[in-house]
Amino acid sequence: MTTIKRNRSTRAMSKILRGLRGATTATANTRDAIRDATAELLRALQDANGFRPEEVESAIFTSSPDLTAEYPARWKDVPLLGAAEVAVPDGLPRCIRVLLHFYTAKPQRELKHMYLREAAKLRLDRGQ
């Protein structure tokens, strides 16, 4: 377990950097559809795991090759990286994925990864 100290305080917080995954699909290749799907996914991850955007250390967003109207990564004050997924023959169309990194005291098994809309097919064990 890693112990981190914030604000040079002598009081340490026992938290570990964890990864949290999620995916969803946009209804169309439009700015609004991509923004709406991404916002819904981030809200679902926040609601399920109890964190605030300012607690996120970094995030990696990917989108399927058919989403070109907008970047899904929109948070301010969070280091973000956006990338295109590899075009595979049976890839899920209009798919947006995210990997969030944040410090938490929760064990990995208590984190709730979210797979919404058509992306629920990607992980039948974790779809919502």
What does this structure look like?
It is a single chain. This protein has 128 residues and is of the alpha/beta class. It has a single domain, classed as RutC-like (60s Ribosomal Protein L30, Chain: A, 2-Layer Sandwich). The N terminus is likely disordered. The chain has a 5-stranded mixed beta sheet, covered by helices on one side.
SSE diagram, text form:
Layout: E1 16-25, H1 31-49, E2 56-63, E3 80-84, E4 95-104, E5 114-115
Parallel strand pairs: 1-5, 2-3
Antiparallel strand pairs: 1-4, 2-4
CATH class: Alpha Beta
Number of strands: 5
Compute the average pLDDT: 88
* CATH homologous superfamily assignment: RutC-like
Count of discrete structural domains: 1
Largest sheet strand order: 3-2-4-1-5
Q: Which structural class should the secondary elements be placed in?
A: alpha/beta
Per CATH, which architecture?
Answer: 2-Layer Sandwich
Write the element-wise H/E pattern from the N-terminal end onward: EHEEEE
Task: Estimate what percentage of residues fall within beta strands.
Answer: 25-35%
Helicity, as a percent range: 10-25%
* Poorly predicted spans: 1-11
Major sheet characteristics:
5 strands, mixed
Rough outline: globular
Radius of gyration: 16 Å
What is the first-to-last residue Cα distance? Answer: 30 Å
Please count the helical segments: 1
CATH topology: 60s Ribosomal Protein L30, Chain: A
